[in-house]
Amino acid sequence: MDRKENLCANVIATSQSSENLSRIELLHWVNSTLGKNVKRVEDLCSGSEYCEFLNLLFPGCVAVKKIKQQANQEHEYIYNLKLLQRAFNEIGCDKAVPIEKLAKKRFQDNFEFLQWFKKFFNANVVCYAERKSHVTERDLPIKSTAQKYGPTTKSKAVHGTLSGVEELTTQVAKMKLSLETVEEERDFYFQKLKNIEQMCLHFVNETPEQKQQGVDDVIRNIVDELYKTEADAGASVDSTESDE
After folding, report:
1. Which residue ranges make up each domain of the chain?
2. How far apart are CA 65 and CA 83, in angstroms?
3. Of 47, 31, 37, 49, nearest in space to 102 by CA
4. What's the pTM value of the predicted model, to 2 decimals?
5. What does the pLDDT read at residue 91?
6. Cβ of 52: how many Cβ atoms within 10 Å?
7. Which CATH class is domain 23-133?
8. Distances (CA, A) of 65 to 94, 223, 238
9. What confidence tens digit (pLDDT) does each residue in 84-128 have?
10. Who has the most CB within 10 Å: 15, 103, 147, 151?
11. For 136, phi and psi rounded to 5 degrees?
């Protein structure tokens, strides 16, 4: 895929960096930012959390409805990670997602990628806030003056504005992501009701003999529909597409 305009700040992270966080610190960051309950670093191999993070920085770069939120199979991990790589290409990120390695669910590979992604996220949160703050170079303090006399009142105000914009931008992006998730769930359960309605209408139109013979099947089908998960629905769609 051709790269579009370079919208992101690229970063380089190494295992020797003193800024690297521990496994516990990284998991706390993931869970507190996304409102998740990820227990292990290797569970991030699904790629869904990275797609959500990227949508916080660059809203709409990954279609929420395409993300397999309940991914638990290697082919589903690969699907989400390819979405992530496609989004990286769109925003001009130089990083090549090690899809095959991450999908194997090994700790070290996922830990190293998470270390890099945390630095990437931090760098781009600042860039995103600066783009949204409309702060020009004339508003920023002169470097030599700041070094000689320390932060000025104006520089403090600018940094305070950037910090506030960063926080509000993140909150708005998270709310937008939550709204899209709620809408997706609404559509999912509405489809359940439509399917059950069709079953009932079909049963009503049957002859008395057919009703007597098929009542158990109708009840079983309705129960199956009620307890069908999004993963089951996605699997049936994938199966239909492969048959075609």
Report:
1. 23-133, 167-232
2. 12
3. 47
4. 0.52
5. 87
6. 22
7. mainly alpha
8. 25, 26, 14
9. 999 999 888 888 999 999 999 999 999 999 999 998 888 887 665
10. 103
11. -100, 170
